[in-house]
Amino acid sequence: MLTVDFDRLGLEPGDRVLDMGCGAGRHAFEAYRRGADVIAFDQDADELAGVRELFAAMKEAGEVPDGAEADVKEGDALALPFAAGEFDRIVAAEVLEHIPADIQAIEELVRVLRPGGTMAVSVPRWLPEIVNWKLSEDYHNVPGGHIRIYSDKELIGKLVNAGLEYAGKDYAHGLHSPYWWIKCAVGVQNDEHPLAKAYHRLLVWEIMKQPRVLRLAGKVLDPLIGKSLVLYLRKPEDGPEDKPEDKPGEVTTADV
């Protein structure tokens, strides 16, 4: 299930796209399916291996337009191994909340986005996330877990201060917030709790079948309790040019 609206991002066939912190690759796959030249970037080699395999399977099955290319790259979000202005579109979905040096990561994303290019950034929304943290320490207090909760104003401010123009926001996955409230209340590892199991079946139905009733419910709930905040931004055409010394040094696979 996608968090980012690629039409709103402005993605077109042939665009060079970076999915930073791609995880299992859901946004990278959609960009590839739409004919983009995609780089799926992450620090998790195992995740990237699976993404690479599915890229190959998509091409073999004829699911992507002729000329579209896709690859994976392992590295550090604080030192992206790409040239300044290399990408037309960037997606950073549900990743900044994991990174201690989030401002440095944002600066790297801005550096590799071309002037006039667009970016979509999503993070857990403040209200649903606050509820999760209040209900359960285990929800976020794990290695590699969420280390902060963003307000809309804070995240927009950090992105604008880094040189982007704010173009709008949206909220997504309204049906998912109650599921995580249930999980946090009964135990995040307690997958066998009857209420958690029942709600999980509902979400699987939503994802796999997209029934009209749940689509309508999502449209109602997204602005109210949508689990994800999604921001859309643009790099100004007349922004300051990147200096050679702004480019990162050697890439590491250290945790970010």
Automatic annotation (TrEMBL):
Residues 18-120 form the Methyltransferase type domain. Keywords: Methyltransferase, Transferase. One of its GO terms (molecular function) is S-adenosylmethionine-dependent methyltransferase activity. The keyword Transferase applies. Residues 236-249 have a biased composition (Basic and acidic residues). InterPro entries: Erg6_SMT_methyltransf, Methyltransf_11, SAM-dependent_MTases_sf. GO terms for biological process: methylation. It comes from the Bacteria. Gene3D superfamilies: Vaccinia Virus protein VP39 (3.40.50.150). Residues 236-256 are annotated as: Disordered. This is SAM-dependent methyltransferase. It comes from Nocardioides panaciterrulae. The lineage of its organism: Bacteria, Bacillati, Actinomycetota, Actinomycetes, Propionibacteriales.
